[in-house]
Amino acid sequence: MSAIPFDQRDGVIWLDGEFVEWSQARLHVLSHGLHYASTVYEGERVYGGKIFKLHEHTQRLYRSAQLMDFAIPWSPQELQAASRQLLQRNAVLDGYLRPVAWRGSEMISTSARFNRVHVAIACWQWPSYFDPEARMAGIRLKTADWRRPPPQSSPFEAKASGHYQIATLSKHDAENNGYHDALMLDWRGHVAEATSANVFFAKGRTLHTPLADCFLNGITRQTVIELARALDYQVIERTILPTDLGDFDECFLTGTAAEITPVQSIDQQRFEPGIACRELIAAYTSTVNA
Ligand code: PMP
Q1: Is 198 in the pocket of ligand 1 (CB under 6 A)?
Q2: Among 89, 116, 99, which residue's Cα sits nearest to residue 11?
Q3: Going from the N-terminus, what domains does the chain have, and what CATH number goes with each?
Q4: Cα atoms in the Cβ-side hemisphere of radius 13 Å centred on 235
Q5: pTM for this model (two decimals)
Q6: For the segment 120-136, what is each residue's pLDDT rounded down to a tens digit?
Q7: Catalytic residue among 53, 142, 159, 171
Q8: Does residue 159 have an active-site annotation?
């Protein structure tokens, strides 16, 4: 990898209420968030200087913290104002914003009652290379060995760091085998989502997507459902089994980073990215740039 490592870039990072030099935005190795994954975060995208769905992302950050039993010591308005200032200070017009909150160093044990909660926001330039035709080739997915756990195992609605360990394992396995990403099943063996994006299937003018009952109901997923209905697609949230995949013509992923990414295959099953992908990519592009 030739890209500059993330701790060595230029600019400023908002850390616990102050703008600090990028290289100085540090935490101690004895941080609860590091040892016990008591960390929640957001991924937001900036289009033309505007943060897309900032309100929804901010709400999810606070909900994630609440579900993980910690309180963010700043108001949503303060973090939103800090995010906007940060974009200006770093001159980011088209990019990505990463707010993160974690428990500090007061206690190193499963109990963390007295740990201070820290918050940082970083952002960087990351233009959306939304060349629809290049995207239409589609990516290849491999079904993961790891499964999304049942809702009784952890608060799945939280965008919490601990939930990403099986995602990283699954993504590595997919990449090691020449695929772009993994498709994760849930504990019942139903189709769930990719490692950091939701999944949709199309058959004619009907979209099918798994019910978000044990994984993140993505903000992009919700946006795409609205856009699709406005374009007269029928959208069905339902149980989808791996054996159902042959019923569909098209498949695509949705996510803040993935935007709408057509899929050409899942294991041996092939899809033909077509009119549904094209129409929804066009609608999504104009919505984020509106
Ligand atoms: N599922 C997972 C596991 C994710 O990490 C993401 C990205 N946040 C999504 C789905 C899509 O969510 P969103 O559309 O809100 O980015």
Answers
A1: yes
A2: 89
A3: 6-125 (3.30.470.10), 132-288 (3.20.10.10)
A4: 20
A5: 0.97
A6: 999 999 987 667 777 89
A7: 159
A8: yes
